[in-house]
Amino acid sequence: MPINVWILVAAQALAMCTAPFIVFIGSIHGRLLAPSPEWATLPVGLVVVGTVLTIKPATWMMERLGRKPVMLLGALAGTMSGLFGTLAAWSASFPFLCVAAVVGGTGLAVVHQYRFAAMESVAPEMAGSAAARVLLGGLVAAWLGPEIALVGGGGQAEYPFMGGWLALSVVQVLAMVVLVFGYRASGERVREALGEGGRPMTDILRQPVIWAAISAAAIGYALMSFIMTATPLSMTEVADHPLEDAKWVIQIHIMAMYLPSLVSGWLIRVVGIPRMMGLGLLAYLGCVALAFSGISFHHYLFALILLGVGWNFLFVGGTTLLPQGYRDEERFRVQGLNDLMVFGSQATAALSAGAVLAAFDWNGLLLIAIPFLVLHGVLMAVWLISRPQNRGRHPA
Where is the Major facilitator superfamily (MFS) profile domain positioned along the sequence (predicted)? Predict the structure, then answer.
């Protein structure tokens, strides 16, 4: 792998900390500051709202300026998120907490583009492995994010979680340092002729391969966020588990999201993208069945492990499949649309998780996931049936 890929792994390990940090304490801190319990998960959802609102501007700027300047702006946004969170904790302000979440989401929108930068740094046949390597940075973030959330005493401090938000800013500054001194933009392919953008988007979207790729990432991410966002509240409020147990479940879940990246690139080459995504669907179904069967610590733990593995297989599979549906000059538009749909779906799921949990309880929330898994299965089947007519760049 080129050095750029490993630099992106290191930068992702630091910059991605915003996600597990807010997933872990966002709803808990929100419960302390929100005017009513129904608003507790709003900060977690607003992270994804910030991501969705930033995807198109971020890809637009990357197309014209290159990826590195926008990556640095993303790390700066992560730093500002930590500072707004610090201010929210100090002033006990729920609106400032919401601002911190939105700004953190803008930084994450840029971090999610790291995988495409890595794919463009290697030969086409290594694209899946490059994307999977970058996701390995999430392993560090999975452990580091929740740990720094408890710096300074966590929720038991005089100003709950203030030390954690400040520590998040420091970690984001370190990500900027890694990018400034490590990432090299020489391999980037900024579009030279702005008037030549390839086919109309309507023609691109007529391809079943596009919908199979987008649905893998979008449905996988949305259902993962839907179940994961509700888990800390379900564990602490419904099942009466201690906060420390919820922290362990979230940490191990996020590690399970990224640890398969050690083998997912190889798995794609060995078994192919369709079987890879099929395994992801089976992992999701196993998660729902296990979580539905009980509320002990181990039910939550192993269900969330399956949830993480299923997310990895669908997300890496969808990301690797996506280039089969676009030409080189179309990549920024299609990548931007892909991430807009992926994180738009995730935002909807995260924002609704608290209300759904309150209205339908934990088991009802789990059952809602099943129709979406069926939908992705149908879109995969349509793509597989039409595959002889597809002419993608990389064989599946």
Answer: 208-396
